[in-house]
Amino acid sequence: MALAQDEFAAAIGDGGGLQAADGTEHLSRTVDARANPRRKLSSSYRRRQKSERSESNACNDDANSNANLQGRVSKDELQVESNILAHNTLQMKDSEPTNHQLPNASDRLQSIASAPLISSSDTTLSPNINILDLDESMDTSKLVAVGAASALPNQMEVIEIDDSESENDVEIVESNTSVKRKHFFPEDNVPDQSPYAKEAKRQAIEAEEPKQATTSYASSQHFIDYPYSDRSSAYIQHIAEACTLIMTDVRWRTCTKISCTCQSQCGVGSGCTGKTLLSWENGDDLSAVKAFMSLCNEDDPASCPDKVSTETDDETEAFERAMHLYSRMFHRKGPWFDLTDLYLRYYAPKKSKSKQSTDESELPEDGTETCETNQDDSNEKPNSDNIDPAKNATPIINNATPIINDFFTPKSGGIATAATSRSSKTTLSQHRSALQLLFTDIIRLLSMGLIRTFDSEYECGSVAGNVSAGSRRGTFLLADERREVLRRLGGGGDKGDNEILAQMQKQQSMRSSFSSSATTQTNTQTMLPVRKHVDHVLTRKLASKVALLASGYGSTTSKPRKGDFDDANDIIQTAWNEASKTCISNGYAKPSKQIMTTLRLREAPLTSLRRALRLFLCACGGPGNMRGDGTNGWIHVPTIGSSPKIQDQWHNVVYPGLSSRLGITSYDLKHCYKKLSVESMHSSDSSATTMMRVFRHVSHFRMFELGVELRSFIDRAIESYDTDRSNQRRQQTSEKEKSSRIETWPCEGQVHDQFEVLTTEGRKRFTHQLVSSCHIGNQTSNVLERIECDISSLHCDQENGNDGLANDRERMLVGVAIICHRVLQNRMPSASQDLDSLVSKPWLRHFSIDSVLVYILWDCIPLLERNGRYSLAISFLATILLGSAHTHVDIEVDEITELVNSDVKPYVQFLLPRRNRGKAFDRLIIDLTHRERARKKYDKAEMKKAKNEKQHGLTPIQQLCKAIICSVSVTTSIPFCSIRNLARRLKVPLRATMKSIMNDEMELLGIRLDNDEDAGESKTSGYCDWTPTTDYAVANALSSDTSTAGKRCSFVGWEDVNGDVAEPMRSLNVEELALAEYNQGRLPADGSLTSGGVSGGFVGWHCEGSHIRAIFRILCLDDLLGQSSNNDDIFLSPYQSSPYDLHVGMQSVKRSSSQIGVSSLTPARGFFERRHDTIEQFLHRLAHLDPQSICDSIYNAIQKRWQQHKDLHSIVKDESLQRDVAELRSLSCVAAGLGGKTLASIFRSMCFDYRHYCGGLPDLLLIRARFVKTRDSPTSLVDLGEWIGESFSKENIEQGSIQAGLNMLRDDEFLGCSKNGDSVGTQRNSSRKSTPIEPITVMPRKLSLRHSEKDVVVDTVLVEVKSANDRLDARQEDWLNILGTNGRVCKFESKKDMKK
After folding, report:
1. CB–CB of 112/185 below 8 Å?
2. SS3 sequence, 668-683?
């Protein structure tokens, strides 16, 4: 149950605002003080606020004066705040005694006016909200200002500022939904006689009782009232934290000595203190980075600042306010901003709509109290679709002055009263003060070199006249504004891409036409000046908006009166002059007399800031996220010399620090990060004696940055390529079906050739850049020769001489892949220090240029295979798997077999994760098979040779498979499921293949090779393997008139009528059909799941193992995942979802011995190896726990995290904790049903290689609870709704379907990686959106395996569901093998196949 938006606005309108408990963001009297850099907490304001709260007779006046919410928040943010307020107040409703009446209206107003405040950052309930939508308008998002029409709870208004191409871009929407205000937050110090205090005292007494049913923090933990300042803004602090971490943590320093032999580990006494990655000496402009570092809270940079000093001088306050504006511009789309946009978003005051008896003449003329005085945007026409004329008046409560809604105020005839004139002058004075603050901040940022305006007339014309392709929508100026600029230039009519620039170049000025040297001047020198016209148009736009905001007729007219417009224009110029004088007196550079109406962030400091943030984002992602999706750190950083055709995507980036502070995402391992400073390393009491460095030299960091640029380009090209292929398939399907409806994915258009690989000269330049960065030596000429040879081979393979590629996008992908391949081949034999460091620190592969190049080759191989380029694909695979340095493309099978049998460099097996390496070996065998088939088709001699080889024994490909199995099984460098796929090609039983081969994964995880050991040994021909328990059932597929290619099949379901007759019901997918079969007891047919005469009764989730991963995270968080030493580099940021080494699977490295032909195995430093003893001890304890102890362990783990929070607000903001608490009893039930031994087997597999075993779990998770059979009562099923509640309660189950409301797929349970992290390209609609949950402020009861005074036993089964034409994946087979009796397969067949 949630309050409506208008109810929420009315409720907070009485109290003044909301505030964050962490001190970073809050909504005081302006709802979103972050959006208003002018907001400050002066001493007089704090004293006045305290006085108002202490005086009860001033309560109503204070509530009425704060009725209209001054700030701007988005609709999503408003809904989130509404939900949080509603559910926290509902908790009070549940805890209130029943023997008292609700407080009257006056008491409620005073209670909410003095109550502790909540933050607008409480977005825990909407995990899909974009951070930038909270009050930032990017492209199509709208800036919304919400205000209550009065302090009375029945009306509110929403003011939306749109970017449409018209003058009327402000809409006023009124919501007239009636409000039923019942409960609000009590204040901190409630009198003893109040019902709130009585209830809090009663709960405190109950909390001390030993037999407490629930643990409540609603009354004991309050919302802490933190002070707010511009410095404490989340938009500033997350940037300041990232810059400080990158610039001061010693792990991000590099060696200062060129010939340093520290090998990335410098002792304290070694004398190598290192230098920062970004520095002035290297040509980096650190103006913005240093400015943000000065604002970082040094006490706790890894968390939101709890205590922010507000006792600052004017100079510091002005600096913080200016940087707040810069941080807001940084998160916006840009790159250009006009003055009107910045003013309306962050500085403009709002005029109050209430006609109070307060004498407005008492307001100060200088506008010093602008921040505390509520103003309102009553300046545009109302939206008639959302206004009810019958509810124009506001009722009167507590003898308050009637408040009239002026949405329908008649248009003035031009006669203004004295009060209106006096109010208009006062408002203009406030606008003048606000404008002066804006201009002061702009001049300060200009003096600091952080922003700039147009450098030339050509740049001004290019930006002002630019329009987007297709829609013809202006990227900077609106259509009316562009027409006005064209009119002032004396022309128009051209319909080109840039009409303004064309007119500037077409017509010359009078001076240039008479100049003697005009004929020799370039177009840029002789074009018409346009900057003054753009400034004039935008200045008039700002004056118009100011006049509309200041006048009382803005809601009924679209243009201001001429007198109001002239006054607004005068105060704008006056504010600019006053701001210029103030800045000059403070020592700033003298600004120009002309108002700068267009601004952008200056490129040089912006580039350095983005580079620092990109490195920080890659550190947060870890080795599990090495592909860019436009929101993470693998993103292009535009530089001054970069092409403008490359779209800037930085406004789409999701910053983990900002998400954490706004409550969108929670990070349970934040405490594991420990900052290492130079001082701490040299301190005598420091326990750290070794400094772990990510990059040994600055050159390695430059190589990493080049790799990120390559990765970003490849990601954009592959996404565009996949989108085109998907659209082509959809179009072909539509043509076959003769349908006019074609659903296509949106495509961003042609990908720009960023590295110019389509031309010979461009390839040379790019190769020189890559070779010089990778320190290959004097190998550039050889590399270029091989690259051009590979490019020419593409044309030779085709009969018509073409390359066979469809478009330039495919040519760019193949060209970049060929260059990366040849560069990588020349780097591997040298065995550089950064390659060798992968063996000692494989969890840092995402910072290795070699690993990035290997990922690029791996992602481009599917494109080569689709185009039949098997030889080139085989060459790529041989390089990334075996370190091949063959110069020719056509590598034969015998050559690859020889490479496998030789000693491969140890670092090669760490360039890709184990799962990707296993897939790569599968692709290598498949591509070799395709190439051999193609050769046999055109060469009879090859066909005859293949027949002879097959008759005399193993084929060359089978010999290669056997050699691969023998090599990788010993080192476990690929998963066992990949070994099984290779063994199938040998066509002998798996047990016979692995008879004399050792494999740690098979031994440690208990993977069986056959169902019957004796039968497996006796069988000598044909492949056979372990098979899981399979339940077969008939599925009646629904016929369709349209093609079902690429779509899921639908089946006819059944439901019971009167308990004994089954009738068809709605169509189901295969998982829903299986759920119904196990629930009704029709599966399994052999009754193997029947216990005590009870069959069926299973319910559960189609979760694909998400609940199992959640249990793993909950139980292993402190004991295993959170283990770290102070000097370790597995936690390089506070915002990691997992330790880095969790994505390094268990494997060994072959090291050559001094004896010829002898090698030893050394375990790699992965998660399982580094924590082996701790993991085994933990799993041993877990395996010996009884079901009730397992339930207690889950409850205690979640309760510990709950108690670690300092207040209720932080509990509500912790999204992960909220979801765990919401399903605490269900997760406990699942774990109890699995038992300690099965959980230990599952956890051991995830610790062995989380990257591989986090996926592949069965589709369905089914549970059933039954009473233990006794003499007095037989076995019967337990009602899960009564025993567990949560999603099993009747309120959450849709009537007519027992599974409705239970099918929640939690894709976010993957730690440090995404669900499709190993897949190539961007996966669209790959995950379901998680269902928003209600905020929980009370810990639920611990699950007891006893209900209705009877013992309860839980049965848990994991079922993999397959349709008739589907088969098990090799990884799924391994999971079913590990799960044992708790895992099975449900196979649906048609009636025809079942008869067979």
Report:
1. yes
2. CCHHHCCCCCHHHHHC
